[in-house]
Amino acid sequence: MVLVSACLAGINCRYNGSNSCHQQIKQLVEDGKAIPVCPEVLAGLTIPRKCCEMIKVDGKIKILTEDGEDLTDAFIKGAEKTWEMAKVLEIERAILQTRSPSCGYGIVYDGTFTGHLIEGNGFTAALLAQKGIQVYTELNFKDVTW
User: Which InterPro entries does this one have (predicted)?
Assistant: First the structure.
């Protein structure tokens, strides 16, 4: 079983209520090979919700809305709940949405809300990778046999 970002499976759970449907990833779910998850929804955040980005504040990584609301604790909670789910399901691989402060792996938005990208990992992607799960994105999963 593979864990996938729910938005990539066509589920309308992005901050703006939309999805980032990727047909091959959606097919993995439909074929019973993957389970969709949205860490932000698991944390209790609403759909829609304010757009968030990662930013370093006083040496710590925080997740803030554009108007400065700190949602770091919710994103930590979502990452932890996703890990708990992955552990129970014995997940070894995940395909996550790039750029996201939860699921971004390799690149994330830089916290300026200007669309600029930097190297980094969202909270969920970082935790899953730390726990030994092989993390892919919608950009690099195609060469893997699922």
Answer: 2-thiour_desulf (IPR007553)
